[in-house]
Amino acid sequence: MSQLSRSSGSLDDTPSTPGKFKPDKPSPYIHRLRFHNLSKFTFYSAFFLAILCFFFLLSSPSGSNPRRSLGSYGGSDWERHVTRSARRRSDSGMTVLVTGAAGFVGTHVSMALKRRGDGVLGLDNFNLYYEPTLKRNRQKELQKNGVFIVEGDLNDKPLLHKLFDVVAFTHVMHLAAQAGVRYAMQNPSSYIHSNIAGLVNLLEVCKSANPQPSIVWASSSSVYGLNSKVPFSEKDRTDQPASLYAATKKAGEEIAHTYNHIYGLSITGLRFFTVYGPWGRPDMAYFFFTRDILKGKVIKIYETADHGSVARDFTYIDDVVKGCLAALDTAKKSTGSGGKKKGPAQFRIFNLGNTAPVPVSELVNILEKLLKVKAKRLVLPMPRNGDVKFTHANISLAHRELGYRPTTDLETGLKKFVKWYFKYYKEEKKKISAW
Ligand SMILES: NC(=O)c1ccc[n+]([C@@H]2O[C@H](COP(=O)([O-])OP(=O)(O)OC[C@H]3O[C@@H](n4cnc5c(N)ncnc54)[C@H](O)[C@@H]3O)[C@@H](O)[C@H]2O)c1
C-alpha cells in the first residue's frame, strides 16, 4: 500500500490521452494570481479541493460502480476484484495480466482466456484515441464474464508493482499500445509514451517480479516497412520503417531482446497483420468504410503511384486470438528471479497473418455486397503518411511452432463484423434516445 501513496516515479508522466490531450498552458489570469495574489489562490484551491473530497467520500464505496472502483486503486474492495478476476479454475491454468484489455484484441484475448479457465486481470488507461464508449462497452462485456480491468497506465510503476504484489502472474499478454499508423504524424509523443516508455516500465516490473512471468506481446507487420520481398518472413530485414508507429514497434522488439538477454525474461513478439472483426477499431479502414458507406459519404481509396492497388493481409480476430493463446501455451518459463538472470531464456518472434492479401478495392466490393449499399469511391494516389503499399505474411514459422492456421477468409470475417456492427449501433442508438 505504501507504494500507492508515493508519486508515480514513472519514466514518462505525460498523460496518454492521445488526440484529445493538449498540455495546459497557464492562463494569464493564473499567472497574475501566482505572482500577485498567491495566498488567495491557495485558499480557493484548498476550498475547492475540500468540496471535491467531500463529494468523493459521499459516493458509494462498494464495487458496484465499475468506473469508481476502477478509477481509484487500492483498498480491500479493489483487491477482492483483482484477485477474483485473476483466479484460475485449475492449478494447471495460467494467471495472465492482459494489458490493453479494453482494446480490440485485448478484449477478445481476455475473453478467450477466461472462457477456458485461466485467471485474467486487465489493465487499460482508456485513452481517447477512439470512441471511449466502445472501450467502456467492451469493459462491460468482460465484466459480465468475470474479467476485471484495472484502470491505469503502463507508466505507473507503483500500480504495476502493486498488481504483481497482489497476484503472482505466470504470464503477461502485453497488448496496450498507441496503435494507428497515420495518427503518429499528429501526436508522435503518444507513441513514445505507450510503445517505448510504457513497454520499458512494464519490462522493468516484470524483470524484478518473483517469479518472473513469461511475456507475449504485440509487435506489428508494420516493422517490414518498405520491404518489397513477399511474403514477409521473420528472417527479413526490419530496418526501413515507414512510420513512427512502425519504428516504435521495431524499437520494442530490440528492447524486448535486451530484457531477455540481461534478465532472463521469456519473451515472444507477435507481428499482427491488419486484424479485423466484431468489437474492432473505428480508426481502421474496414470499420470507417462501413460507417461512411452507410452514411452515403465519399470514401477515399488509395492507389500506388503506378495505379496499382494497395493490399492488406486482413486477419480475422478469432484466428489472431488462437495465435495469441498458442504463443502463451508454448511460452517457456522466464529463467531469472528478482532481477537476476539464471540462464538463457526463450526469445521468439512470429508473424500472425492470414497469408492471403486482398486489395482495398476488393474489401470495398465485399462491404457493398454485405451492406447492400453502393459506395461513393474516390480513388487517390497514396499520400506519404506512414502507410505501406501491401502486407503479406509468411506464416510457416507460426504454423510449425504454434500450430497456427488461420481459417477465416475476408468475406466470412466481414460478414461477422457487419452483423456485429448493426447490432451494436442499434443498441447504442436506443441508449441515446432513451436519455
Ligand atoms: N489491430 C491491428 O490490426 C493491429 C495490427 C498490428 C499490431 N497491433 C498491435 O496489437 C495491439 C492491440 O491492438 P488493438 O487493435 O487492440 O488496439 P486498441 O487501440 O484497440 O487497444 C490498445 C489498448 O491499449 C490501451 N492503452 C494504450 N496506451 C496505454 C497505456 N500507456 N497504458 C495502458 N493502456 C494503454 C488503449 O486504451 C487501448 O484500449 C497493439 O499493441 C497494436 O499496436 C494491432
From TrEMBL:
GO terms for molecular function: UDP-glucuronate 4-epimerase activity. SUPFAM superfamilies: NAD(P)-binding Rossmann-fold domains. The keyword Lipid biosynthesis does not apply. It is a multi-pass membrane protein. Keywords: Isomerase, Membrane, NAD, Transmembrane, Transmembrane helix. It holds the Pfam family Epimerase. Residues 1-25 are annotated as: Disordered. Residues 96-333 form the NAD-dependent epimerase/dehydratase domain. Its EC number is 5.1.3.6. The chain crosses the membrane at residues 41-59. It is found in: Golgi apparatus, Golgi stack membrane. Residues 1-17 have a biased composition (Polar residues). GO terms for cellular component: Golgi cisterna membrane. It catalyses: UDP-alpha-D-glucuronate = UDP-alpha-D-galacturonate. Belongs to the NAD(P)-dependent epimerase/dehydratase family. Homodimer. This is UDP-glucuronate 4-epimerase. The gene is LOC115972150.
